[in-house]
Write a structure and sequence with these properties.
16 strands; 24% helix; 316 residues; homodimer; alpha+beta; 6-stranded mixed beta sheet; 8 helices
Chain lengths: 316, 316
């Protein structure tokens, strides 16, 4: 193991470590839910597709609206109960994406996407997990208004945590898509890739959706071989992160690369190559001579890469 | 750490360690797919809802059918490409559940569910991962024939790996539901629970679906508190397992219990209590004086529990 590098304090993983008690047992109780809605401490986040509406205040930007305020902003498409924070009810309210875009012209509000909010640190980090919860859940509602089993229109029930089909009686639960995101490593080298979507100079982990009938570890090996042509042996889980773009769960791993020649799948990646540990350290520290960078700390990829740079990996 | 107990060889985790190369790059190529279908080495698994059709042969039960054989059994509802095994194409064919039930009366076949096949060891274990792949994928098709975005009928494309909506153009991908399954532990004691569905005397891990906007570790803590009233601190990932009943991905963890009083959620569990390590060892070895048991080795719960009994847990 190389000496520890000075990369500063390790920042918090974005959207994780929620302080919200989801109080799931309350969801099915319509009377309890009405009482929570009319609670004077009830507050709501307002979400329109990819956009989050923030209130400008003298103290900075505030993502919380009183219940009546939230409902007065625009037509409400859906509401959902996120849980309790120190006993105070928190909701998320969906407005139409067009309505959110229109609020950009109102100087009382800052309207922007959740990734920018997290990366730029626009609000207290404690708001990021419930915003992720609300965005993922409301995004699911927006695109699941019909029953995939029979095609009928469905109805939201249980405070926004289920949709029921009145025709075929099927109950539909919110969807969460598990994604394997991994760093293939071999000694003091690792493989990073660049997708079409990345900003210039940024390199990151490989990633892909876990498929039906597939273990996390098998998905890590398959995706690494498909995208970069690298065979992997052992896989070590690192950490996970909700990623509400739209409804992913990122499952971060290190993988033991057992082949070396890279073959790039040009449909998935524009580039992939081996990097030395020292070069990656300079990317994390934003001191790379050619300006190459790793992802921002809001993404689990940053932490997967940094953990390997600082501590290496032990495959069990 | 206590001395290692003699519990015999640790068996393979069910449905994992697939030898199938999914060859995902072939899925979108219709010509390549037709060639694979007409390949003389092409074979298919036949699945009707929860039931798998096995051929009786002199050498035992065989889950593989030649392409024409599979199609002759019953009307084909859906087909999907699973991948290649040593270059030989493997498919899964869906027939209607009623048709599979009817084949139970045909002495040429054994028709039973995948869990029984795995627990009773009816076929070579190498078939379990592709059967899990096929069952999860075909189960998704069976209940996703309509577009959740607009209600129109959708069409299977990409060799069964996507459904497209001709009306609103949305592409739908197979669904996989991540589930947290965990053993809360404190020194030489752990918490096990019993659900309504368990056979008498069986105790297992706690488990629950990971929700939108939630990290695996947060889901472990939430579910343990909801179901058994136990607060947990650190969480250590153990392993994962596809669980195609219908489309789950089991994510196995150990959790550091930091409270002790159990409060049972009677909607979820019929019982939960603390067990000593020695008692759990006797359950795994099937030598418990009162006949209590742990789950069968096909389930990840067996492995999560056994790993703690044999090796303890290190929370990082």
């Amino acid at each position: 193991m190389a000496a520890r590098l000075d990369l500063g304090t390790r920042p918090r993983l974005g959207y994780s470590a929620s302080r919200v008690d989801r109080a799931a047992e309350r969801r099915a109780d319509a009377d309890a839910m009405r009482a929570l809605e009319s609670n004077s401490r009830a507050r709501a986040y307002v979400i329109g597709g990819e956009l989050i509406v923030l209130r400008k205040t003298n103290e900075g930007l505030d993502p919380l609206f009183a219940w009546a305020e939230a409902r007065a902003l625009a037509g409400v498409a859906e509401t959902t109960f996120l849980g309790l924070v120190d006993g105070a009810p928190r909701f998320a309210v969906a407005i139409e994406p067009n309505a959110a875009t229109a609020l950009k012209d109102n100087s009382a509000f800052e309207v922007t996407d959740l990734r920018s909010i997290a990366v730029r640190g626009l609000i207290d980090a404690d708001h990021l997990p419930p915003l992720a919860e609300g965005k993922a859940l409301l995004g699911w509602h927006a695109h699941h208004r019909f029953c995939p089993n029979c095609g009928s229109a469905t109805q939201a029930v249980e405070a926004g945590w289920r949709r029921d089909c009145p025709a075929c009686q099927t109950q539909h639960f919110p969807r969460t898509d598990p994604v394997a995101i991994m760093l293939p490593v071999a000694g003091d080298r690792c493989v990073l890739g660049r997708s079409h979507r990345f900003q210039p100079g940024m390199w990151s982990c490989l990633a892909g959706y876990i498929e039906p009938g597939e273990a996390i570890e098998d998905a890590v090996r398959r995706e690494t071989r498909e995208e970069a042509g690298i065979a992997c042996g052992r896989v070590a889980y690192f950490a996970s992160q909700p990623w509400p773009f739209p409804t992913s769960l990122m499952i971060g791993c290190h993988a033991e690369a057992i082949s070396h020649e890279i073959v790039i799948d040009r449909n998935e990646l524009v580039d992939a190559r081996w990097f030395d540990r020292e070069e990656v350290a300079s990317m994390i520290a934003r001191k790379h001579p050619e300006g190459l960078t790793a992802p921002a700390p809001v993404a689990i990829a940053y932490h997967i890469i940094r953990a390997w740079v600082e501590d290496g990996v032990e495959f069990g």
